[in-house]
């Protein structure tokens, strides 16, 4: 386990970490394929939902290669456009849920002086839409919502490196539920907290994390333990 110093900042993945993605994603996913069929771009049954769920945490291009391996770029691009629009429409209507304790825990972390950021492989409009429509935006740092879609990074390692360097951060925790989060944290020398509650990660996905949590609220216990260690 890495050294657990009191964090100056935390960087959060969004889907499967803060946001219960499937509550928004799956209705939009099925509607997307209804639209693709009606537009004559897709035939047959909607691909099983595990293809889109298992792709969470990947870059969007990789997700659509997995969901639509037999279709070209134009169809994948149209599917991407439809899915994003449907999810943003859903957010505006109040659809989608945070994991239990997320808002309260983030608020408590801010009160403890921890600076909060996101780093997601999703599109800018989606990442910012989730944070804004869930009422979390005031808790995060100004210009602290980072996404691969906005910064055109090819990996979360690069995105997190950019974030850390741009904000001059020294002691940072990376918090996420996928192997890409563990890799991004470790490659940038961060303490990594693996979130073990989303339910759709792959076996051994969190190997390499410094610690795992079974609920989001456990972050406060880790921070308070670190505070005690730092002041001992």
Automatic annotation (TrEMBL):
Entry's transmembrane regions: none
GO molecular function: hydrolase activity
Keywords, alphabetical: Hydrolase
Pfam families: Hydrolase
InterPro entries xref list: HAD-like_hydrolase_sf, HAD-like_sf, HAD_sf, PGP-like_dom2
Coiled coil location: none
Domain of life: Bacteria
Descriptive protein name: HAD family hydrolase
The keyword Ligase appears for this protein: no
């Amino acid at each position: 386990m890495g050294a657990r110093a009191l964090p100056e900042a935390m960087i959060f993945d969004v889907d499967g970490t803060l946001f219960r993605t499937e509550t928004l994603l799956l209705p939009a996913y099925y509607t997307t394929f209804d639209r693709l069929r009606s537009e004559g771009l897709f035939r047959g049954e909607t691909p099983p939902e595990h293809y889109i769920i298992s792709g969470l945490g990947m870059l969007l291009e990789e997700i659509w290669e997995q969901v639509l391996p037999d279709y070209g770029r134009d169809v994948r691009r149209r599917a991407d456009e439809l899915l994003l629009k449907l999810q943003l429409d859903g957010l505006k209507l109040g659809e989608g849920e945070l994991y239990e304790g997320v808002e309260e825990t983030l608020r408590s972390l801010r009160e403890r002086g921890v600076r909060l950021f996101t780093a997601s492989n999703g599109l800018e409009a989606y990442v910012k839409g989730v944070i804004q429509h869930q009422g979390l935006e005031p808790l995060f740092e100004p210009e602290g919502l980072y996404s691969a879609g906005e910064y055109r990074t090819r990996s979360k390692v690069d995105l997190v490196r950019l974030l850390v360097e741009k904000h001059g951060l020294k002691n940072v925790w990376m918090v996420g539920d996928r192997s890409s989060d563990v890799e991004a944290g470790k490659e940038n020398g961060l303490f990594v907290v693996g979130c073990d509650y989303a339910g759709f990660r792959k076996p051994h996905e969190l190997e390499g994390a410094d610690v795992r949590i079974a609920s989001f609220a456990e972050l406060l216990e880790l921070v308070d333990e670190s505070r005690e260690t730092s002041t001992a």
